[in-house]
Amino acid sequence: MIPIELYFNLSAFLFAVGLGIVITRKNAIFVLMGIELMLNAANINFVAVSQSESGLLEGQFFALFVIVIAAAEAAVGLAIVLKVYSYFKTIDLDRVNELKG
Amino acid sequence: MEMLEILFYIIGALACISAGFILFTKNILYAAFALVVTLLCIAALYIFSNAEFIAVSQIMIYVGGIIVLIIFGIMLTAKIRDEKALVGSHNRFLAFASSAAIFVMLISVIGTINFTQYQAVTGSNLHKIGEGIMTDYLLPFELMAVLLLVALIGATAIASKKEGGTS
């Protein structure tokens, strides 16, 4: 079978790329996409470890819960993004800089 | 066996390339489509590690749900035709430094893990997942359902237009 190190290295790379997206991008939706990528990178590790212990599937359950919570996070995040857009007319995170305007 | 490993490398490389494309592209819609490719490749990796249920959930929830939500968000907030969909990037040096630092740190830590205790087993484990959800993981499962319901109702309530409302 495929060695588990490969899964871990791939997930480390994807996590680093997701972090880069979150830091560099100005657009809020890009930042959400970077967060989804980082969550997926963590999930790869969980699933890769859970294939080896024959009886226990804790990693797969954890990955399942992470996927569902990511769905909830995306829904609420995009609702907030839409509200911010209708108020500020932009979703550039550098220009959304006042509270209670 | 050899074939499987080659396929794994191809899919992993595709995931890395499309993730890099998200990092470097300027068009946000292309980035959303590249994210679809990345998520599909990750679903394929789940199948490689005998997790068919997680792979199908990944395709249904991420590609069928979250990506559609993200594309809706893009369409409602960016004007594709007047070049406003093109977004730049900033903090490039800082981002490169911190990402590279995290990557090197993770790789060096992964190098020290002893993986020999993990012997991969083959075969489907779909039945065990079904049993586990209904027995050991029943409480998290139900909590997850309630959380998803609350989050979706909350998202609708936040995004809806109220007249004279306080929100």
Describe what this molecule looks like in 3D.
The complex is a heterodimer of chains A (about 100) and B (about 170). Chain A has one domain (about 5-90): Helix Hairpins. Helix content of chain A is about 75%, strand content about 0%. Chain A is built from three helices and no strands. Chain A has helices at about 5-25, 30-50, 60-90. In chain A, helix 1 (about 5-25) packs antiparallel against helix 2 (about 30-50) and helix 2 runs antiparallel to helix 3 (about 60-90). With about 170 residues, chain B is mostly helical. Chain B has two domains: about 1-95, Four Helix Bundle (Hemerythrin (Met), subunit A) (Up-down Bundle), CATH 1.20.120; about 125-160. Chain B has six helices and no strands. Chain B has helices spanning about 1-25, 30-50, 50-75, 90-110, 125-135, 140-160. Chain B starts with a helix and ends in an 8-residue tail after the last helix. The model of chain B has no long low-confidence stretch (mean pLDDT about 85). At the A-B interface, helix 1, helix 2 and helix 3 of A face helix 1, helix 2, helix 3, helix 4 and helix 5 of B.
Which key phrases capture this entry?
heterodimer; A: 101 residues; mainly alpha; Helix Hairpins; 3 helices; 0% strand; elongated; B: 167 residues; Four Helix Bundle (Hemerythrin (Met), subunit A); 2 domains
List the helices and strands and how they pair.
The complex is a heterodimer of chains A (101) and B (167).
Chain A: H1 4-24, H2 28-50, H3 58-88
Chain B: H1 2-24, H2 28-48, H3 52-77, H4 92-112, H5 126-134, H6 138-159
Helix pairs in contact in B: 1-2, 2-3
Q: Percentage of helical residues of chain A?
A: over 70%
Fraction of residues in H or I helices of chain B: over 70%
Order of SSEs of chain B: HHHHHH
Structural class of chain B: mainly alpha
CATH topology of chain A: Helix Hairpins
Q: What order do the helices and strands of chain A follow?
A: HHH
Mean pLDDT of chain A: 87
CATH class (first level) name of the largest domain in chain B:
Mainly Alpha
Could you give the distance between the termini of chain B?
A: 58 Å
Instruction: Calculate Rg of chain A over CA atoms.
Output: 17 Å
- Inertia-based shape of chain A: elongated
The CATH superfamily name of the largest domain in chain B is NADH-ubiquinone/plastoquinone oxidoreductase chain 6, subunit NuoJ
